[in-house]
Amino acid sequence: MPTQPQTQKDAREQLRAEGKARTHTDRVSIEAFAEAVRIAADRSTNPLHKLELEQLRTQAETHRLKTNVNGWVNPFPEENPKSQLMQYGFEYWHDASRFKAMCASRQSGKDFNSEGEAAEDCSMNPKHQWMVAAPSERQSLDSLDQQKLWAEAFGLMIEDEQVQREGSHGETLLKSHEILYSNGSKAVAVPGRPDTVRGKSANVLLTEFDFFEDPLATWRAILPSITNPLRGGEKKIRVVSTPNGKGRMLDKIFNEEPKGKMVWSKHLVTIYHAVLMGLPVNIEEIRAAMDDDEGWGQEYECRFLDGSNVLLPYDVIALAESFQATETWSLDQAGSTNPTFLGIDFGRSNDPTVCWTLQRVGDILWTREVLVLKDVSTPDQEQILSDRIAAASKVCFDYTGPGIGLGDYIVKKHKEWKPSEHKMGKVELCTFTVPFKCEIFPKLRRLFEAPTKLRIPVSRTIREDLHMMQQVITSGKYNYWSARTKEGHSDRCTALALAARAADGPAAPFAWSKINKPEPGPFAAALARAKQAMGL
Questions:
Q1: pLDDT bracket for residue 61 (50, 70, 90)
Q2: How far apart are CA 165 and CA 138, in angstroms?
Q3: Do residue 330 and residue 472 come from a single domain?
Q4: Which residues, listed in sequence order, are joined to residue 479 by a DSSP beta bridge?
Q5: Is residue 25 pLDDT above 90, yes or no?
Q6: What beta strand segments (E) does 296-352 contain?
Q7: What are the residues whose beta carbons fall under 8 Å from the beta carbon of 366, sequence distance 6 or more?
Q8: In terms of residue numbers, what domain contains 198?
Q9: What per-residue confidence (pLDDT) applies to 525?
């Protein structure tokens, strides 16, 4: 019969053997899972990356939404946050290259995937730092919000959050928005300008980099920080954007031969790639709603057109900002001494209607009201706008698409301004053709430039809306275009351009008046009687 010590020894040996077996099984399972992840992330086995644009377009026409044409399956279990990734996002996320670029369609989840990678890096590596820069304040903060969601999913808690602005007022321009995680990692969001990115040593995510105000100067400001290994080790850089013309950063990365040791890992995701890999988006609906072949080619097919520039950079907008300009006011203040002018950009379902009121005081056009009507019926809009139109000296109304019906009703009530047809009312119906846009938007830009004769409210929403308007150049010809966001597509900028047009030129009411003729003398009266007697 075995002794008690012998029994305990045997039990320990058995437990040790079982532990080794479990460790071996776990190691095999981990290795098998790692191999499954590697295979799922291998772009070289994805046939879609070998197809030309026309082939992708044709295949997408008959594709069933929400399915992956390759039969690809995400290897992560449902309880893991990364199980949400589609194939193209999975491939991008698990590419560990130091220099990585994604040229991607809108609505494909550029920030969702990029910020997920950054959040995982912060979670797995305490005291790591990431800087997120975008063309505008809104885009920077929206991107950072995506990282917060991923961080929460990974169990990474936010310990502190700090916001710095140019001044003490909450509506002034953003300098930085920083979050500190519980493990010492940090993420900071900044508008993509040379002065905001300079000197920050961190891993870098440049989202919509092709649309920065001055991408070359911003790149020069960032480069020393990411190439110095003595400041926190080797840094990663991520450039994600839709194209913005030839000769810019994305075009150079994707279409030029690499220079020196900076070799980019390149990921191309058109709307067709995304849908064929499971993105549940109806391509035809988006294209019909956009109704712009050039915009579609750039924003969704990732084609490099001639280029575009920001119409109103932040420093130009700042020239006109004033705390004395207002977003709301009472119509009682509208009078004949200081005339008012309206610009109305009509919207119904996808975008809001914006009515921008300017009042001339001396030689300055002051913003008095920026009225935004979202999801308001057309009859209710007419009722709301009617008193404002009646009080204005002149109105420019967006007479394009859905605005035609309301425009017809408004000119019937308030009379049309169209001197070429001898119509001298107060409402000008404006159809947004390319020549018309090329007339009003350059004039708006000149109105902002020093010495500015325009005053607008200090408002983040207004500033971001104005900053989104782009001057697009295609084959040497200019056009103006803005990406659609949840706030609209530069509706405030359009309304302001229309209001500026209303204020530019004659607007005095036209009316007939009786001409008082002198009474005829005796000779004239006798001559008139003689003519009447002769039947003349």
A1: very high
A2: 14
A3: yes
A4: 472
A5: no
A6: 307-310, 340-345
A7: 324, 325, 358, 359, 360, 455
A8: 41-306
A9: 53
